[in-house]
Design brief:
Distance between the termini: 65 Å
Order of helices and strands: HHEHEHEEHEHHEEHEE
CATH architecture: 3-Layer(aba) Sandwich
CATH class: Alpha Beta
Number of domains: 1
CATH superfamily: Vaccinia Virus protein VP39
Shape: globular
Strand order of the largest sheet: 3-2-1-4-5-9-8
Number of strands: 9
Strand content: 15-25%
Oligomer: single chain
């Protein structure tokens, strides 16, 4: 290889490394998706095996345990039980405010993952049309192949836009999603508002002062407590605050909102119906009406 060809090759490699660094950082992109098998130029998705009655409700499978995210998911039974508990908790919140989910209703889970909660809606709200969206295309593909075919699924990107018309859903919910969005969180909350029907309900979990207190009281989430301690060691006591971000790396953000901030800002976009500390582990659930 002559020196000019070698220089061009080095330049191409440097450009590729720069692009890879940019693609790894959400803050540098207008939109990003986590695609299927990002290292493969080609791949095949196979149809799932028929439902196995031993696998879970209706015979539907559970994902690889190495991909489970909650501490109490010790085995398949615990994984399934936690999903059912959270679906019923959300349904109960809706019912308290006049929405008895069922036939003719449409609901959306923002950040559905492998469908831990979403899979339960055919049992919890028979006849409701349940949708799930997630940034991880692999999770959507798994859920589409392994969960009830009545569930509707779509991948989305980091851009705060969802592929639905205005006012599409009577209920939108997000469990442990908003606390992990360090950029454009307000825009995402407004996008969830856009796809809610007038009078529709939102159930969104957040980190707030009660979350901080619960972490320190219970010892749950030791890594999160270590992050809080490190932030306070650098910047002084956390309170008072509006928003506190512990980590801006993609997929690792930990964002706290003060009660006052939520009332001032979210209260301008929604009617705040309930604020329920520790409704989703140590997270506070905000029950809102458009």
């Amino acid at each position: 290889m002559d020196r000019w060809a070698e220089a061009r090759s080095r330049g191409v490699r440097a450009l590729k490394r720069g692009l890879e660094r940019g693609l790894a950082d959400d803050r540098t992109l207008a939109a990003r998706i986590r695609p299927m098998r990002p290292d493969d130029e080609a791949f095949v998705l196979r149809p799932a095996a028929p439902p196995d009655p031993a696998a879970g409700p209706g015979g539907w499978a559970v994902p690889d345990p190495t991909r489970w995210e909650l501490e109490e998911e010790r085995d398949a039974a615990a994984y399934l039980a936690s999903g059912e508990l959270h679906a019923r908790t959300i349904a109960a919140a809706a019912a308290r405010h006049g929405l008895a989910l069922g036939e003719g209703h449409r609901l959306l889970e923002f950040g559905c993952g492998f469908g831990r909660v979403l899979r339960w809606w055919p049992a919890v709200a028979p006849g409701a049309e349940a949708w799930g969206v997630d940034l991880e295309a692999e999770r959507i593909a798994w859920a589409r192949a392994h969960l009830p075919p009545s569930l509707r699924l779509s991948a989305c990107t980091t851009a705060p836009h969802l592929p639905f018309p205005d006012g599409s859903f009577e209920l939108v919910y997000a469990c442990s999603v908003i606390p992990h969005i360090s950029e454009l969180a307000d825009a995402w909350v407004l996008e969830l508002r856009r796809v809610l029907a007038p009078g529709g309900l939102a159930y969104l979990t957040v980190y707030d002062e009660d979350t901080e207190s619960a972490i320190r009281r219970t010892g749950e989430s030791p890594n999160l407590r270590a992050g809080l301690d490190a932030l306070e060691a650098r910047d002084g006591p956390l309170r008072p605050f509006d928003v506190a971000v512990l980590n801006r790396r993609p997929g690792s953000a930990q964002v706290f909102y003060s009660r006052d901030y939520l009332e001032r800002v979210w209260g301008g976009w929604f009617e705040i119906l309930e604020r329920r500390p520790e409704d989703f582990h140590v997270q506070t659930a905000m029950v809102l009406r458009r």
